Amino acid sequence: MVQTAASVLYVNPVSGRDSSPGTIQSPFKTLTQALRQSQTGTIIQLAPGLYRADGGEQFPIKIPTGVSVVGQGEAVIDGGGAIATTEFGRQQVSLVLADRAQLRSVTVTNPQPQGIGLWIEFGSPILVRNQIVRCQRDGIFVTDNAMPVIFENTVAENAASGLFMARQAKGEVRQNTFRKTGYGIAISDRAAPLIVGNQIVENRAGIVLSRSVSPVLRQNRIAQNQTGLWLQDSAQPDIGQSQDPGDNDLQDNSGWNLHNDTGRPLLSVGNQLNPNTVRGDVIYAASQLPDPAAVPPLLLGRVTPTPTPPAAPPEPVPPGPQLDSRFIDLVGHWAAPFVDALAEAGLVRGFLDGSFRPDVVVTRAQFAALVMAAFPGQSSQNQRVKPFADVPADFWAREVIYRAQAQGFLSGFPDNSFRPNAPMTRVQAVVALVSGLQLGRGQSAQLVIYQDRAQIPSYAIAAVAAATQRQLVVNYPVPSELRPLQSITRAETAALVYQALVTQNKFPPLRSPFIVKPVEQTLNFTDLRASSGGHWASRYIESLSKRGLISGFGDGSFQPDAPMTRAQFAALVVNAYQPQPQRTALSFRDVPPDFWAAKAIQAAYQAEFLSGFPDYTFAPDNPVLRLQVLLALVSGLSLAQRVTPQLASLTRYRDRHRIPNYAQSAIAVATQLQLVFNYPNQSELHPNRTATRAEVAAMVYQGLVIQDRAEPIASPYQVTAQS
Fold first, then answer.
1. Which ranges in 257-397 belong to alpha helices (H)?
2. pLDDT at position 294
3. How large is the greatest C-alpha to C-alpha distance in the chain, in angstroms?
4. CB–CB of 22/34 below 8 Å?
5. In whole angstroms, what is the distance from residue 245 CA to residue 3 CA?
6. The dihedral of CA 373, 375, 378, 384: what is its sign?
7. Beta-strand relationship, 115-120 and 221-223
8. Are the CB atoms for 606 and 583 separated by under 8 Å?
9. More confident site: 349 or 563
10. Cβ–Cβ < 8 Å for 368, 432
11. What are phi and psi of 459, to 5 degrees?
């Protein structure tokens, strides 16, 4: 199969224009326009907002073969339009999905009379983590020979059915929630899907099967409906066999938990089902399988012999990312190409339920096992290894742990322990591969790419720099965020090991927007050059970049007009000013200890740059406002001690009435110290507008000027005494 290079298109219904090129800096306004520009392999990222007909969308929206539409936040597609279907006439539909089309993390609602959310008529489209809600008929309609993968979606409050499957439809329906709908799932004709691990609750009927359907039901919870499972006509579902128990939970439905209206007996094996709540003929049989506890789970990296490296292609052009996967929970996942390539080579395995569990944390023992499978090497029989007190002789990974130590990949701790079951951190994984593969030392200048480079331990700086130079590092979702101290997941480990295999010429390179490019490819920001029209803040940005205080993105851009989050701002001010604590620490409910910016947020709080909210939250991913930036700098740098605030200085701002009373003195101080930059109009402060990366860079640089740590840079947009 010929693979096409994937591209990424961006859509923003608020700030975008359909005449734009569809980049992250200049997004399209409508999904409709992005789809016109798409081809097989294209990924379309939707910014938060409403996608409706009055905003330019043309319904029904058709997602072509192999195109992925991915929501970033609250992306809501609201609307519908008429489509002529093969067997069901004209239907009112929001989206039509073609073969291998993907829809991820999007909310879809169709308020049209008899409106249907998603229409799937052929092929194998993929639906992952969407919300299909408040459609006036069905949430998802699958017909003909379609075989979709429907995974971890919420389908709720639809008028007729959450999911309707007809004709010869098959496919997999896994780990979704169907609730508060007429029929949670309705299956008719000769459809035969696999339905596994779903929550089907609070519906008039949980699952309704009619005509000659033969679905397979496993591990579903069907509860709190009026009727749980309702069989009609000649329906013959498989809800468990003697060698394959159903493990469905049919309880707490207000009417019948199971209503068999077919006139034929139904075999039930291994289900939670009270015979007193059943209507119709049911045969209850026992499972012949042993207790599942006796079957150990498959472990990452518990593998055998090194695979034969694939032959190098004549022209090693990296293929575009293909987000289909053999693992049910990797369809549409950013790491699917890396994981599937390793699985094909026998280096990683999934679990008995067909999943890979990409977000599960990897232990040090599991990491050792995978690394030794990928890089078996040859260590000297006489090479001495350090014994570990916590790795007993019968520990499953003992051999690979000592081999990894002998080959220089891993070492223990000063207390003679290895801590095999402790999570492996991201930076430990990078250091291990650089050390074991003897990739040498890198230049610390490479680290300017990472916004959170201050978190890189000193012992790891050279190794991380070398890994960056060799393109080992894969950072999702933001390439410039290394998150070195976070535990590494199975997906991240697979991507890192794959890239290490690429450096050894054992695997061909893949294209991914999340592979970090070396610094020489990203330092001269493409969107700040004169050839790109320049930018008013380019000198401030370049100056901070040279100091290693701020960085751009993997595509060579800086994205000066993009917003900056509160967490990113905290990391920047801590990195720039190295402040001392002025108050005791405070825990924020929405900043877990392993959050990438947790230490920076705490340092910024203790230094009085930033505070949280009354409910003890920090909102780290919310955009920081211009007012908040100025207040933070005045407070954290103690600027009120330098000048006496003159409120008359605020009269230069035409929108001064928008400055809150509590902030007027601080804004006056910022104005008097020339900390304020107003682009494009000096007289408009816009205090409550989201601060851009460029505006924050200019203000933070001016803070360094005030501290006599940087030379002044003149700008026509800097508010001065003569303004």
1. 336-344, 364-374
2. 34
3. 91
4. yes
5. 40
6. negative
7. unpaired
8. yes
9. 563
10. no
11. -65, -20
